[in-house]
Amino acid sequence: MTHPDLTLVQVPEPSQIRSRQALERLLAVGEELLANNRFEEASVAEIASLADSSVGTFYRLLGDKDTLSLLLLQRFMQKLADTTASLRDAGAGCRDLAEGVRLLTDTYIDIYTGRRGVLRAVILRASRSAAFRDRVHQLNTHISSTACDCLEPFMEQVLHSNPQQAVASGVHMVLGALNQHTVTGTLGGLPAGELRDEIARLLLGYLRGPQ
């Protein structure tokens, strides 16, 4: 499957080194504010100051705060897509369905860890924008397709009348659970230290359970 087009906004790359460095600092500050759930309340002046830049430089490089927000979401979604794509090769080292499932779930958990603010912003943006939801759907399709590729050698171990459908559906159930856990900080009172084992058990149980 081809890589999904997750382009939300395009910002011309600055030609000067100082401007490129300023842009990277602005993005880094934006990511930190998102992580701390402070992005929405932060002003352009505050973002520029935290990035050791100026308001004029902010507007010259980004145009407005919404463009920065879209760039940050775009970078997160692209990272998720790139990491997901790497699972096709990583899955070749798994010996059975259980190891393949654990590879998938651990990878997703690693990506989600520490990104509560970003996921919250993704959810809010998706609720408001049909164009953004379309990009999320493309990413979800990419994730489920890659999961099927990763587990392809073990499909005979999936006890479901439609193994491909089971894997695709199961992965989205896992991502939904991780969204809940990441955004709210809890998943049915599950201790954080047990999250990896229980999420893997959830998907494996669904794939192996009686149908």
UniProtKB/TrEMBL annotation:
InterPro entries: Homeodomain-like_sf, HTH-type_TetR-like_transc_reg, HTH_TetR
Key word Acyltransferase present: no
Keywords noted in UniProt: DNA-binding, Transcription, Transcription regulation
Gene3D superfamilies in the record: Tetracycline Repressor, domain 2
Molecular function GO labels: DNA-binding transcription factor activity; transcription cis-regulatory region binding
DNA-binding annotation, residue ranges on this chain: 43-62
Entry keyword Transferase: no
Source domain of life: Bacteria
Occurrences of domain HTH tetR-type (ranges): 20-80
Record protein name field: Transcriptional regulator, TetR family
